[in-house]
Amino acid sequence: MASWSADLELGNPSMDDDHKQLVMLVNELEYSVDHRRSSDVIRAQFEDLMTVADRHFCHEERMMRQAGYPDFRGHKKLHDDLTRDLHTLMRQIASGEGEVSHTTIEWLKGWVGGHIRGEDRKLAKFLAERPLLSRIA
Ligand SMILES: [Fe+2]
Ligand SMILES: [Fe+2]
What we know:
Helices cover 77% and strands 0% of the residues. The chain is mainly alpha-helical. It has one domain (6-135): Four Helix Bundle (Hemerythrin (Met), subunit A), CATH 1.20.120.50. Helix 2 runs antiparallel to helix 3 (72-94). The chain is elongated. 21% of the residues are buried. The structure holds fe (ii) ion (2 copies).
């Protein structure tokens, strides 16, 4: 089970709140896969995760634009790549060709943890050094 840990905390309350929610949704999905809950439940949870991830990525991208973040394009591309992969998987699930497996969960946990500790940490540091700009986001 993935859990929220201190090294995921970035000190930016709006980013941290979103990240906690994302980690919680991945945990719930993992619980459902582990306990072989129905495919309808798993699909609904997967859709919730996609919705929250979409909203969170838009939020970070808005903050990056407003603060003039120098690596906006690189960071956004990582968001776009994950979004595309999630939508591909969602289509496969909806058509019965794919499912949320343990491998999917491990991939998601790795992506979320790695992204927060890497690109998001850099962004939070940049915003912290520009408090006036980040406050209007
Ligand atoms: Fe993030
Ligand atoms: Fe991000």
